[in-house]
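Hi,

I'm pasting everything inline rather than attaching a file, because the server keeps stripping attachments. The sequence lines come first, and each chain or strand is labelled.
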Amino acid sequence: MSDEFVQVVEEYRGEKGALISILQGVQEKFGYLSAEAISKIARLCRLSESEVFGVASFYTQFYFTPRGRHKIKVCLGTACHVRGAVRVLERLEQSLGIKSGETTPDYNFTLETVNCIGACALGPVVTIDEDYFGQMNPEKVDQVLNLAKS
Amino acid sequence: MRQKLDSEEALEKFRTKLLADKEKKPSIMISICHGTGCQAYGCGKVSEAFREAISRLNAQDKIEVKITGCHGFCERGTVVVVEPGEVFYQRVKPEDSTEIVSSLLDGGGVVERLLYTDAFTGERFVKRSDVPFYKKQLRLIFGDNGHIDPTCIEDYIAIGGYTALSKAIFHMSPEEIIEEVKRSGLRGRGGAGFPTGNKWEFCRRAKGSPKYVVVNADEGDPGAYMDRSLLEGNPHSVLEGLIIGAYAIGASEGYIYVRHEYPLAVHNVRIAIQQARELGILGTNILNSGFDFDVHIVRGVGAFVCGEETALIASIEGRRGMPRSRPPFPAISGLWGKPTNINNVETWANVPLIINKGADWYSAIGTKTSKGTKIFSLVGKVNNTGLVEVPMGITLAEIIFDIGGGIKDSKKFKAVQTGGPSGGCLPASLLDLPVDFESLAAAGSIMGSGGMIVADEDTCMVDLTKYFLNFTQAESCGKCPPCRVGTRQMLGILERIVKGEGRPGDIELLERVAMTVKQGSLCGLGQTAPNPVLTTLRYFRDEYEAHINEKRCPALVCKDLISFYILPDKCQGCMICMRSCPVEAISGGKRLVHVVDQNKCTKCGTCVDVCPPRFSAVVKVSGERVEVPAQPVPVQKPE
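And the predicted assembly:
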């Protein structure tokens, strides 16, 4: 992984405040930030590991464990909340057999919640990878999951 | 590659040429909304179908398809508008394309069944501007979204784009621009409502160089998405405002800080920047005026607090996004310790309008202290959800009932939540409140970034408050104790109240903690986090009392306080609910009255949803017992 790795870091060399961009770039390439990745970034950026991890762990969009092939996000924004997003989440947890924040053992799905994806008019909204599913309800959950599996 | 424009005249010549080219183009334009909302409805397939239908019917020289940003009426996607004539089609599906295209070729008849029909009066509307959702709106900032392809700078220039920029840099001094913005009365649209012109002036007068300007597009308020739609649908309007601001302030570099969750916005802004650079509208020596300015995009990484300006600066600098105490304000010491001016997306988008039309024109719109228009995201339990742009001073009732078409499923209005998690919940008695900075603040809420979430009688205000506290507690950066500890304590109290474990004195305790957090916190997040608690205690105290004293949730929401029962005199033993129950808590059989095992039931509500309406045998209650058999018994009533 090292060549690709150095490439990401090199892209931002000399740029002020590039640490977050580097972390984003590495995560985009490798899917998550491993302990090894953190320590490599630290060395290349001449920072301590704790500084790098301190920044990464502050933000919710950095992940430190591998995630599934498909990322399912349930929006829990206010508009989705008042229209019953929690029930949609509960049904997804049941159908997938995992809790929010977890990944299925076969690494097919990761289930996450998000505070608002800005598609409020369609609430409750679920996204699977790049696809948006609006006006969700518990009954539609399995239908949508089947679509993602196929 | 585009050719660089090297003067004001070159820009005007370019515009004239674009308009002349337009004459040669097909006379009919089908504009199809590709905002995020319509994407969820599958607008991509709709556009494909239209293109296919046009080529199949050999109409390429008569009809053109235009992919645009958000039209605002997200509830009715996919939205399609035909020009000329402003014919508004809603809920358009790919299979409707041939009919629409044929109707246009046959001499401009309309496809009646796709028009917007008023649910109450049955009246059909052909023109977009006649549709009730649009009628009371004043779409100064948002209106161009429907006419331009956001990935094509030529579209923006053709409708008069970048005229404000050339007017500003060739005919106005920086001081004159600031004076104009000051006189317009424009106030920050991100939440606090600080006068924009004054903010610019502080930064212009501050010592230090370089200076920076920043677009705050870290739109984190759940329930608000107007900044997203502006950046996606009309990125050049924001960019133009930013360049004018940079010139007025004397900044040479800008940043656009966009939320992680908005990939399409990042994509469209990136294209806009690239195209503006190609035309010489951005970069060194803009339009050969001697003014240099360029922009970087920074993607957020999911931290609500980064919407606060000092936290946003820390995040751009590559650090943990924690706020710091002010002063010094960013205008004096901001990004990398240099003078920095941060404005919200919508604020920047107002600037070209003010420069073009003048402060007098702009300040005639709105109220005495709140000028111009404001975009709200009208969402929740309202019929017409979407983005609405209205003049300041319009009442809540006008927005919710005239534009929003009232409450979904003919339910009763309970509250409207404005200003996101930092805002407040306003009751029916305040529906005539004019929407402006001061009125909302006096009622205990805030304008915020413009989220407007409508709650009906089925919404529990205690649960909703808990929801907001859950959010602010999780998003508190942890730097200052009042916010870090206080939000957690308030959440804890709310959690026990919704569980039916509330104690006498909890309301007073909540109020005390809320005031401490409000007064003692370092940044806006903590100072406003208690607003949902304080406003619901002010307007919906009876709901708290019912939870605490009677262990009852009047809206039938809080799971620990509700139960589901199947009424023996209504149940027909059809087994639908039994089969649908995810935890097998329902026993019974064919023609046997079903019974819910209260110990197994997870209160998911599926049984209520699936019970056929002609039976309506499942009831949800709180604080009362319903007499039902302990075991399944034969159905009494004939089918």
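Chain B touches chain A through 65 residues (CB under 8 Å).

If the labels don't parse on your end, tell me and I'll reformat.
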